[in-house]
Amino acid sequence: QDVPPYTEDCRSGTYPPSGQTFRGTVPWYKVNLDQAPHERWQQLISDKKIQLTALIQSIKNLAKSIFPSGKLIEIVDNDLPLLIGTLPAQYGEEMKGIADASGLPLGEVILFNIFYEVFTV
Amino acid sequence: CTSLVAEDKSGKLYHARNLDFGLFLGWDVKNNSWMVTELLRPLVVNVNFQRNNKTVFLSTSFVGYVGMLTGMKPGVFTLTMNERFSIDGGYLGILEWILGKRSGAWMSFLTRSVLENATSYDEAKTLLSKTKMLAPAYFILGGNKSGEACVITRSRESCLDIWELDIKQGRWYVLETNYDHWKEPLFIDNRRAPGMKCMNKTTQENISFATIYDVLSTKPVLNKLTTYTALMAVSDAKLEAYLRDCPDPCIPW
Predict the structure, then answer these.
(1) Could you confirm whether B1 is annotated as catalytic?
(2) Which of A117, A118, A121 has the most B C-beta neighbours within 10 Å, making it the best mutation to test the interface with B?
(3) I need a surface site. Which of B21, B41, B120, B183 has the fewest CB within 10 A?
(4) Is the peptide bond before B42 cis (omega within 30 degrees of 0)?
């Protein structure tokens, strides 16, 4: 189909993945649930800190383009961390660990983690 | 998103999904892509969650996101969730939470808790259908026995519908996008019909990782929002995930 939604005939022979629709394989990591929640994601964050920071920065840029005053980011950075104590304990601690390991503000890590609830309208 | 669970002729269950995310989050005019979707791809990881050096569950996840959207308890069940849009959305749940009404569960923490703690398909199904939530959702659940698969349609307060496999009636797969299965999808976002057409064309006799990957590689099931494709076989404890791209021409959602 040459117009949106560009529906194709059912594809075949695409597996094992290769070619233009394949961007790469996904790496494996272990997370040890016996570790304190604060420590569990350290290795992963250490490996992906730059990529995570880039994503959060992009979301902040989008927010700034909608609310140029920067008020929204202020609320995220200053007020969202107040939620942490109300979240299920181990997840709150894990988010604190991620914020500490990445150097990102806790409110921005919380925002990333509650994105689903924010975007279901 | 597009999630499906299919049963082959021997009773083996396959569960797969395309994770689509980033709609309206910044369109990159130069590269014809969604900015957030592009930035999410390098954050996709497979995680083996272990306790006492033994696997508790496997997941395909985003670094920095502690909840779960795709996961498997090997030998027990598989789980994916798809976004369900509603006016009675998660922002109301967040508001209630802030105001001190905290009886609901956060979607991704619920799925993580189910993957971590549920010990059977039935227990997972009960938890996902009965727990009050902050936001609506579709839970796509697969078990490890013939006939064990369903799509749970949730509002914040209750379970609206459970749509199950029914081999005797010829329903050997369930396929869910982002619309209630008993209603027509939005006409500008119909991934269900092309997905079902390809599943029907594949037939139950030929279902496998390879043929399911073919279905999930067909536009518009594959689209500009597709971040990764995950394939799971619970009986083999096998989870594979691949980063995706949708070269032009390709619909933005």
Answers:
(1) yes
(2) A117
(3) B183
(4) no
